[in-house]
Every structure is written in structure tokens, then in C-alpha cells.
Specification:
Elements (H helix, E strand, L loop, with lengths): L2 H4 L2 E5 L6 E5 L21 H9 L5 H11 L10 H28 L2
Antiparallel strand pairs: 1-2
Length: 110
């Protein structure tokens, strides 16, 4: 919820007096935190970007993030979508490089 909406006041008619007075709809202290106010897991950067960065050291993490991406994990928190997509693209590129290296070795040593 936007910060300006926390202090939203509305005009309400008093039935018996005929006067108008302001009444608070909600008090700012009673507002619960929103879904996206919580920090992302993995040190605040999200599972996707965490897998993307650590994938350069341990490439199977890219495939794990790709599995999460195609499993629609980002529907729980849309902030995860960019990192999971980046990991999926990197996993595809890494797979292509591995395929070229193995094909080159196969045909070179035959």
C-alpha cells in the first residue's frame, strides 16, 4: 500500500447533528506490512540472482533456478522473475558451450 494511503481520511456526515466531521478510515499504526515489504531470501537479492551469481562457481545452481522458473516459482513473489530468467538464459548458454566443447572433442579425437 502506498504511504499516502496510510493517512487517508474521508468525509463522513454526522446523522444527528447535520454537521460534517472528519473520521479516520484506518490508523497508520494498525496497518500490516505488505507482501512485498518483506526482504527477499538469500541475503535480500532473491533466489534467482543468488543462483545466477553463485552459478559461476557452481553451475548446477543455474539449472536449479531454471527449474524454479519453469515451475512458476515467481508467482509467489514477482520480484524473483528477473533473477530466475537470467539464470535460465545463462543455463541455456552454458549448455550450448558444453555441447560445442564436447562435439569438438568428439570429432577432433576421432
Amino acid at each position: 500500500m502506498k504511504p499516502a494511503a496510510r493517512y487517508y481520511y474521508t468525509l463522513k456526515d454526522a446523522i444527528g447533528c447535520g454537521k460534517r466531521r472528519y473520521t479516520a478510515v484506518k490508523v497508520a499504526e494498525d496497518m500490516e506490512t505488505g507482501v512485498y515489504d518483506k526482504p527477499l531470501p538469500c541475503f535480500g537479492c532473491g533466489i534467482g540472482w543468488f543462483s545466477f551469481l553463485l552459478g559461476f562457481v557452481f553451475p548446477p545452481l543455474w539449472y536449479y533456478a531454471t527449474f524454479l522458473y519453469f515451475g512458476n516459482y515467481y508467482r509467489r513473489d514477482p520480484r524473483e522473475r528477473a533473477g530466475l530468467a537470467a539464470s535460465a538464459i545463462t543455463a541455456m548458454g552454458f549448455s550450448f558451450v558444453l555441447l560445442v566443447v564436447f562435439a569438438f572433442r568428439w570429432f577432433y579425437y576421432l
